[in-house]
Automatic annotation (TrEMBL), chains A, B:
InterPro entries in UniProt: ALAT1/2-like, Aminotransferase_I/II_large, PyrdxlP-dep_Trfase, PyrdxlP-dep_Trfase_major, PyrdxlP-dep_Trfase_small
Entry similarity comment: Belongs to the class-I pyridoxal-phosphate-dependent aminotransferase family. Alanine aminotransferase subfamily.
Gene Ontology BP annotations: L-alanine catabolic process
Protein name in the entry: alanine transaminase
GO terms under cellular component: cytoplasm
Database matches in Gene3D superfamilies: 1.10.287.1970, Aspartate Aminotransferase, domain 1, Type I PLP-dependent aspartate aminotransferase-like (Major domain)
Record's keyword annotation contains Magnesium: no
Domain Aminotransferase class I/classII large: 122-506
Domain of life: Eukaryota
Keyword vocabulary terms for this entry: Aminotransferase, Pyridoxal phosphate, Transferase
Molecular function GO terms recorded: L-alanine:2-oxoglutarate aminotransferase activity; pyridoxal phosphate binding
Encoding gene per record: GPT
Function statement: Catalyzes the reversible transamination between alanine and 2-oxoglutarate to form pyruvate and glutamate.
Catalysed reaction, written as an equation: L-alanine + 2-oxoglutarate = pyruvate + L-glutamate
Amino acid sequence: RVYGGVMLQCVWCAEESLSGVSERRRGLAQEKMTENGVFSRDKVLTIDTMNPTVKNVEYAVRGPIVQRAIQIEKELREGVKKPFTEVIKANIGDAHAMGQQPITFFRQVLALCSYPELLNENMFPEDAKNRARRILQACGGGSVGAYSASQGIDCVRQDVARYIERRDGGVPCDPDNVYLTTGASDGIVTMLKLLVCGEGASRTGVMISIPQYPLYSAALAELGAVQVNYYLNEEKCWSMDLSELERSLAEARKHCNPKALCIINPGNPTGQVQSRQCIEDVIRFAAKERLFLMADEVYQDNVYAEGCQFHSFKKVLFELGPEYSDNVELASFHSTSKCYMGECGFRGGYMEVINMDPEVQAQLSKLVSVRLCPPVPGQALMDLVVNSPQPGEPSHTTFMKERTATLSLLAEKAKLTEQILNTVPGITCNPVQGAMYSFPNISLPEKSIKEAKALGQAPDMFYCMKLLEETGICLVPGSGFGQKDGTYHFRMTILPPTDKLKILLAKVKEFHQKFTQQYS
Amino acid sequence: RVYGGVMLQCVWCAEESLSGVSERRRGLAQEKMTENGVFSRDKVLTIDTMNPTVKNVEYAVRGPIVQRAIQIEKELREGVKKPFTEVIKANIGDAHAMGQQPITFFRQVLALCSYPELLNENMFPEDAKNRARRILQACGGGSVGAYSASQGIDCVRQDVARYIERRDGGVPCDPDNVYLTTGASDGIVTMLKLLVCGEGASRTGVMISIPQYPLYSAALAELGAVQVNYYLNEEKCWSMDLSELERSLAEARKHCNPKALCIINPGNPTGQVQSRQCIEDVIRFAAKERLFLMADEVYQDNVYAEGCQFHSFKKVLFELGPEYSDNVELASFHSTSKCYMGECGFRGGYMEVINMDPEVQAQLSKLVSVRLCPPVPGQALMDLVVNSPQPGEPSHTTFMKERTATLSLLAEKAKLTEQILNTVPGITCNPVQGAMYSFPNISLPEKSIKEAKALGQAPDMFYCMKLLEETGICLVPGSGFGQKDGTYHFRMTILPPTDKLKILLAKVKEFHQKFTQQYS
């Protein structure tokens, strides 16, 4: 068996240990060998016949470095010796996985909704029971196991609308413009799906910040749209520059049809909180240039830095007066996954659309109906977030205590991260004003850049991979989010428990110094 | 204000009562009136600039007739007089909404997972607690609020694999080939997304049964693929004919590149259970013609008719021997939404891929990572379905009692539906062998067909709309699922409680006779 033995092993090895059919399979494979020794698998669906847009999709937050981290964890369990005893993952904004505790009230209501028999027990506070009863009454057959309306449960959308009105100082919100979603990602992809069309020079362009959250680039790749980059200003704490927006748009108009502008505020991966002035500028720009605005505001409660405040795009839009509030099309997104809740697993979220063409909105409603409905437990959770215990209700004190404790701890860790990283020569870290991430600039020695390029790797991927192998720390290279040519970064979450975060930062510091020396 | 006053009202009226800005808005609109009185809204995103593939999407199960039903319910609540006092919805397979009770054990475990404090209480059986502990241990930070792996929680995928092995008499199942999904719909759309590509005559064609479940046509429209229809044989109880598959494929090859064949078994909307022979024929056909098989098996426990049995495509594939089991590419789908569970709201499901090209499977894994993970409560529920209480465990007796009661009741209602419908002159109903639907053939008088066409409506839509207005019964016209030209049907679920189902069937009978008379 000279022909292609290695190939066979490569393609099938993973399966040989798992099923008894590999011998037969190999027999079959031999029959299908072509004369020049190439193994012909004869599949219908191959890398060459599959959807090419899917191949263009990349998602760094769960990319190769995370795959390797999982592998290393397995090796550690199997007793393989490493220079560390555990992998610390700071690659993804997954608060509960990092030990953050859920809000008691939320989980009580969810348990009551799941198993309404518990409504007869004395162990739950009355406000939790009341919320559960209200949600259950709004469900078909009084069960969270029924489909909801595709747009989401009516009373939840009403609660969302009232929450938005309170948040935005009374700016009206119509529940008919609120769509509950499967996490914010679902809403963002749905909106992009509506926007994207055309071929060649009339293909839809969508402006996204660089660095960006790679859901955007992945969705645009899948939809075959043109990703139009505008760069955040790292020198000015990752703020948005009007001149950069103008440059980016002018450039894009030469080869596509830019229709939308996406903003993440507070920023992911960059952790900045946009000023009111900046948001105003962006809205005026969108109005002037006729761009549909998409505001990803899932970190709206994650604001830590003094002097910083969250301003919703909607509120600023309405404060600019009817010329804007009656015209600029805006979709904004929220989620149960971030803020003080961190309930990622429930995949809850909502989007609000403003000034959307009624015909398009009818199409949106139709489109969401195909997937039947967002997960009902996630809808219930979204309801609790926007309708949390009020002063006077039995759960209010505990709720506020838990909420404040979580947000204060995050604020501490944001500061700690920035401070320690800035003590490392060759690392420069902007203040983590909000969200859950720092995105420090790292100086990489020329020699390491050359070595990475020789390996066909992005230099910061090379750096992060080495960091993982030597210290067990899992970060995501800046190249997965986009960055100015010739600059290098990594994204790390501020979520690990304080003691682990300190270890992580100390190890990063040590590693960076060693790495710099090694490649100098 | 002569110009376009009606238009203004039409476009904005819904908003006038809801926000204070309508006056300003109208002012603005006036400024933008063009000379010929057409109202220029000047939106970025309009019906003309939006994604045209989205416009082609249709989803009858939640289409115009259901919108009208919801409206009528509202009118009833507001005291509008109707010839009926309630709307009976038999349009969607939503068991809990129709009063089916959830399985106690499942909901106990879900409550425990949501609020693990309950593990300290004596009120839950030990097996429920053990299941909850096992699921929580597999979650990041021991919380269902953490993201899971994108492919799904490891131990759940292992349980799914063991379930499939038991179900299929020991045919091996590799957990690495199992992907947990957000309901079956998500898995189906994801697979289609991988398969679809090409332009013009090389566009991917996907063969689907007619009648079909409109998720398929909707997803294909959205992806811009070619829908290739093959007709089920109504005369032979909606079975699949090999000759019809051959005809359909040959026809399709003239104008596209057919790559996949979708089967729903037990059938939706048609309620048939395919014979083992038929499945064998389909597999041989797919192998010969090099088609990727997609088997939608979400109703696998819903088999009622004597002599009928569920055969999974995978089992039959492996029984056909290595020539098939080593080669034919298959994706099969299951869900928590149907069978005896009916837990639609949780959006749980899985898909198994077999003989998938490893490179493509890597692309699949990457693609699912962009959406982060399926809802964790749905994953937990899927785990319980595939790892239900075993003999000897404290919850086993109750579980079996509940499961059997639900399935027996469905079997009774399947029979009842068929029997009563077949007593109506002009209605012919195949046996409801499985699933949750009957799809009877209805004879419509020529005069009614003409009247419908004059209104631009499908004749069975005209019929169902009249039925709704006159009796409050909400069914879905056959045209929403596809049917042979010149034949007419409706789909009705067998899910309403027996007493309501009897009322529904009596009303349909009465209506059909009246309708026939009226248009004769």
